[in-house]
Design a protein that fits this description.
alpha/beta; Rossmann fold; seven-stranded mixed beta sheet; 9 helices; 7 strands; binds S-adenosylmethionine
Length: 240
Amino acid sequence: TDFGYKEVAPEEKTRLVGKVFTSVASKYDLMNDLMSMGIHRLWKRQFVAGCGIRQGDRLLDLAGGTGDIARLAHKAGARVTVADINHAMLTVGRARMDEAGLVQGFDWLQVNAEALPFADQQFDHVTIAFGLRNVTWRDRALKDMHRVLKPGGRVHILEFSKVGLPALAKLYDGWSFQVLPRLGARIAGDADSYRYLAESIRRFPDQETLAEQMREAGFERVSWQNLSAGICAIHRGAKV
Ligand code: SAM
């Protein structure tokens, strides 16, 4: 398939994203380390450290995947619900937590971020790391995050963003579109999925645009912070 290279209809996207993550689940953690040269661990640590988690806070980690954010949040004192649409990713995540003797600290749920099965005003924090760009209807997902937050609660988004330095942007493009699909082919036996990932990063809104979409969904005090010159950005917003 060449779905990474053409616009896909929204109804198609959810299915394709499902295929991608089912395909990469067993190699997901290894690939993250290789593709980012380990830097994703630093980004994630900085992301969670800035959430302002207090002991006992209820935190919903959306698109939680294999549980990296959930683990860090749990360590910071949160009661964590991990939600992901993909059964294979959740299975890998749970097995990993089990090995670390950690499974009991979490609730695991197979959930579409666009239609959260929670009552209003349940959580102190909603986190979503490298997940929002995979969601088909971003506006619905943002609104639902806002809905399930308690007043005073905050949303935290970690996502690839727009690189500010032209020279770095060029290098990074080469890395994404040349190196990543090859790595994907060699390690995970799946170049297409990694092409999709690179393409989805390119299509994702830049810092200012995402901030505006968060405001449209009802968030206030929206701010962002670039990581690694904008390769990633952390956006945060409050429900007042
Ligand atoms: N948050 C983890 C991390 O930082 O390592 C996983 C990120 S992984 C790149 C993206 C995750 O988003 C996948 O596990 C995928 O199944 C999940 N996902 C994609 N679309 C989703 C949706 N509509 N609702 C919930 N999760 C979704």
